[in-house]
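Ticket #4471: structure export looks truncated?
Reporter: QA, pipeline team
Priority: medium

Steps to reproduce: submit the single chain below to the structure queue and open the exported record.
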Amino acid sequence: MADKTFRLDVVAPDAALYSGDATLMVAQTTVGQIGIMANHEPMLGELAAGGCVVLTEAGGARKAMAVQGGFLSVTADTVTVLAESAQFSDEIDVAAERAVLESATEGSEEFLRAKSRVRAVEAVS
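Actual output as written to the record:
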């Protein structure tokens, strides 16, 4: 039986946010949402502005990260997310980010950053 996990690394210019084994990763790309499981076909994807990455660890725990642009690379047994910036959902003040969504111009960098952060929190709520 094929292994049900793959290696996942999420890195940003200022930090390596996550490195471990996962059973599932879901991300918003510029062509839509994609789910990655073990033994996925190799691919490259551009992460969408205002998106997030949600992962399910090998032990079953779910984690989410607000991700501001970047790329993902899938190989035979590894997924690498190279984000322009990223933040774990448990570090986000969702009330403050919802306030930004209300006041920011839709499509602006500020709006997309807040949208990403709210998505990440909601993904694991």
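Status: closed, not a bug. The export was complete when the record was re-opened. Leaving a note from the reviewer for reference: The chain has one domain: 1-125.
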